[in-house]
Every structure is written in structure tokens, then in C-alpha cells.
């Protein structure tokens, strides 16, 4: 032992993996730029005649290609991991989320008037950014609908506004129950229902669904009897990251698994089992190698046939957690919006999400409190856009 007690001086300091580390913050922001780029690109593909699987693959290509251009310098001889953190899902009409079909499956092409929910995520060095958006299919990207059905307008505006005010409310010192009340108030004001099974989650490095959660509504006694869990109260802290996830519907909000193949799964890292089938061992070997902690789709496997054969045993023994496509009752209008927020010292910053399409309109007005928050957000974003434009103009003159 040295006289100054520095026998530990060669040990590495514990890595800081939250937003108090500026490098971590930059990685979240760069991943968020890619999410917004991919969302914008995918919106342009949602036209009549398009195939869902092609759109999913198009979005995946944007994510992977964009990530290839970033953080390619090795750190201590090790390459920085980058990739899809939640597979591109394209859920149409009554389907709420998690629909990411295989290339071998024949599905109907998109039709004019279809309501499409886009959902995806990516990560840089395990730091995850996610986003979701809702659009209506038109003949071409240059001819968006002028207006939509009144009920669809209500639910889309409600979901989008709820996302915006919820994102604003997630700040250091606030509680998850405060945000739930805000979302419930918006839904009630627009005469729609939240999708109860959708929740907002804290995100950490390589963790897309952290311990801290926010419910979209408080469960009723009937909901609790039916098995729904009441979330424990928690407080948000500075330097945390959250996925603000809002799904609303004109139906009753009690969705069920759709009669569609489940293709999205996540490894359950707490379970191990000696699998019997060769195809199952192939699946878990690929998962442990390529997708050890984050959700993936069977479409990402080189051997789709083996993946389809082996997935059942993996699920039956708890090695994989399925994300089934969820569906509302037929005829219900569903909207889904999601953004990523960073709790920075300067305040909560929303880093993903596209503007609400202009054709989503409603005759209903938000309550005074919600309207005031939305006005403040709009003013803040206008100032930010003006500052960005001035900076760009100044740069172009040089």
C-alpha cells in the first residue's frame, strides 16, 4: 500500500450514465434527431398502395443508415453500440400498436383514409430515444386530406395535446399521479378514452421500460378486479429521461391482443432455460448476441423460418416477453403520439415528435388550464424556431 492510500488510483471511476454527463446528453439528442428524421420519412411513405412491411423496412433502413454515420471511433478499443431500440411498427385503424409484420406475410395495402400509427426507437451507446405519430393515408404525399371525420379529429387532437401537456408536467419534483390527472382531464374534455394498457416509462441506459411509470388513467375498482395493477406513486428527478406515450380512442379503451402474428419481443434477462429445439436455441442465441436487452422483431433475423419455429418454446419458458399487437373494437378511431423528454437543469426538453397534422381538427376546446399550458408551449417553441432561423441565416451569410 502506498503512503497516500492511492492503491485504488488506477481503478476506473464509476461511469455517469444520466443527463448530468454532457456526453450522455449529446447521445440522447443525436438519437432523437434520427427518430425525427425517420418519422418524417415514414410519413411520406404512408400513401395509398403502400405495403406495411415495406414501410417498416424503409424506417429501419433510415435508422440503421443514420446511426452508421455517428460515433464510429472506438473507446478503449471497443466500438460504441448503436441500433434499433424499438422496431418500426405500423398499426392501422383499430390496431393500436406493436404491428410489425414479416416479409413472408401478405397483408392488405394501405387505402385512402386509413389511420396509421407509426412507432419506433433507436439508441446510441444504449441511450434510447423513441417516438410515435399518427397520420391519415392519402393518394400521394403531396395531397394530404383537407379534413377528417370529426371523431378522428377529436381523438387525434386530444392525444396530441395530452402528450404536450404531459411532457411539460414531467419535471423534477412532480409526481406521476399529477401527470395522470392531467391526461385524464384532457381525455374527458374531448370526450374520448385513454388506452389503459399504454403507460409512460422512464428510460435508462439499455432500459426502455424503467421502474418509474405513469398511467394514462387511474384504474377503477372494476379495472382492479379484472387484474389491472395500480402504479406506485413516484417523483421525477432531474437528469432523468422519459417516454411520454399517449394512446386515445373513441372506443372504451379496453384493448385486446389482435388476431395477428406477434413479431415483437424482448429478452427477459432474469430467466434462463435449457431449450430442447434446435430452432429455439438459434433464436435465443441470436437474441443474446444482437438484442440482449431491447425489443426486436422476428423480421431482423437472417433465418425467418427458424425464428418462427423457435419463438414459441422461448416464450413458453419465459425467456422472451411478447409485445402482441393490440386492437380496439371495430370502428373505433385510435390515435397514438409519443415523445422523448430530457429533464435538464434548464427544464424539461422535448426532443422527439412531429407537429400535429393540420387536417386533424375539432370543434372542442381545451379547458382553461390546459389551454394556458398549450399557449405557453407554443410561444416557447415559436421563440426557439425564430432563434434557430436567425442563427441559420447568420451562418449562411458567412
TrEMBL record:
SUPFAM superfamilies: Creatinase/aminopeptidase, Winged helix' DNA-binding domain. InterPro entries: Creatinase/aminopeptidase-like, PA2G4/ARX1, Pept_M24, WH-like_DNA-bd_sf, WH_DNA-bd_sf. PANTHER family: PROLIFERATION-ASSOCIATED PROTEIN 2G4, PROTEASE FAMILY M24 METHIONYL AMINOPEPTIDASE, AMINOPEPTIDASE P. The lineage of its organism: Eukaryota, Sar, Stramenopiles, Ochrophyta, Bacillariophyta. This is Peptidase M24 domain-containing protein. Residues 27-203 form the Peptidase M24 domain. It comes from Chaetoceros tenuissimus. Belongs to the peptidase M24 family. It holds the Pfam family Peptidase_M24. Signal peptide: none annotated.
Amino acid at each position: 500500500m502506498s503512503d497516500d492510500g492511492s492503491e485504488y488510483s488506477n481503478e476506473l471511476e464509476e461511469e455517469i450514465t444520466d443527463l448530468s454527463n454532457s456526453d450522455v446528453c449529446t447521445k440522447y439528442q443525436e438519437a432523437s434527431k434520427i427518430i425525427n428524421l425517420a418519422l418524417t420519412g415514414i410519413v411520406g411513405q404512408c400513401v395509398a398502395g403502400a405495403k406495411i412491411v415495406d414501410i417498416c423496412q424503409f424506417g429501419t433502413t433510415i435508422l440503421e443508415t443514420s446511426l452508421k454515420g455517428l460515433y464510429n471511433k472506438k473507446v478503449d478499443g471497443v466500438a460504441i453500440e448503436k441500433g434499433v431500440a424499438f422496431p418500426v411498427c405500423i398499426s392501422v385503424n383499430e390496431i393500436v400498436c406493436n404491428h410489425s409484420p414479416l416479409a413472408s406475410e401478405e397483408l392488405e395495402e394501405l387505402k385512402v383514409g386509413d389511420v396509421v400509427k407509426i412507432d419506433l426507437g433507436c439508441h446510441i451507446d444504449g441511450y434510447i430515444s423513441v417516438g410515435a405519430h399518427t397520420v391519415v393515408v392519402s393518394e400521394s404525399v403531396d395531397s394530404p386530406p383537407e379534413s377528417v371525420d370529426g371523431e378522428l379529429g377529436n381523438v387525434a387532437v386530444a392525444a396530441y395535446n395530452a402528450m404536450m401537456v404531459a411532457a411539460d408536467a414531467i419535471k423534477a419534483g412532480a409526481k406521476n399521479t399529477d401527470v395522470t390527472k392531467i391526461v385524464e382531464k384532457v381525455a374527458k374534455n374531448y370526450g374520448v378514452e385513454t388506452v389503459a394498457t399504454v403507460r409512460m416509462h422512464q428510460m435508462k441506459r439499455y432500459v426502455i421500460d424503467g421502474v418509474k411509470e405513469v398511467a394514462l388513467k387511474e384504474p377503477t375498482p372494476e379495472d382492479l378486479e379484472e387484474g389491472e395493477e395500480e402504479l406506485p406513486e413516484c417523483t421525477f428527478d432531474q437528469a432523468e429521461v422519459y417516454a411520454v406515450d399517449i394512446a386515445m380512442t373513441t372506443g372504451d379503451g379496453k384493448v385486446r391482443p389482435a388476431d395477428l402474428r406477434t413479431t415483437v419481443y424482448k429478452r427477459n434477462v432474469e430467466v434462463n432455460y435449457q431449450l430442447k429445439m434446435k430452432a429455439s436455441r438459434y433464436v435465443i442465441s441470436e437474441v443474446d448476441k444482437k438484442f440482449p436487452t431491447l425489443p426486436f422483431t422476428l423480421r431482423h433475423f437472417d433465418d425467418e423460418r427458424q425464428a418462427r419455429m423457435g419463438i414459441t418454446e422461448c416464450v413458453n419458458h419465459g425467456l422472451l416477453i411478447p409485445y402482441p399487437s393490440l386492437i380496439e373494437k371495430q370502428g373505433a378511431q385510435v390515435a397514438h403520439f409519443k415523445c422523448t423528454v430530457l429533464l435538464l437543469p434548464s427544464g424539461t426538453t422535448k426532443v422527439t415528435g412531429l407537429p400535429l397534422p393540420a387536417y386533424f381538427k375539432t370543434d372542442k376546446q381545451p379547458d382553461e388550464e390546459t389551454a394556458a399550458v398549450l399557449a405557453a408551449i407554443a410561444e416557447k417553441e415559436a421563440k426557439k424556431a425564430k432563434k434557430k432561423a436567425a442563427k441559420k441565416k447568420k451562418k449562411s451569410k458567412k
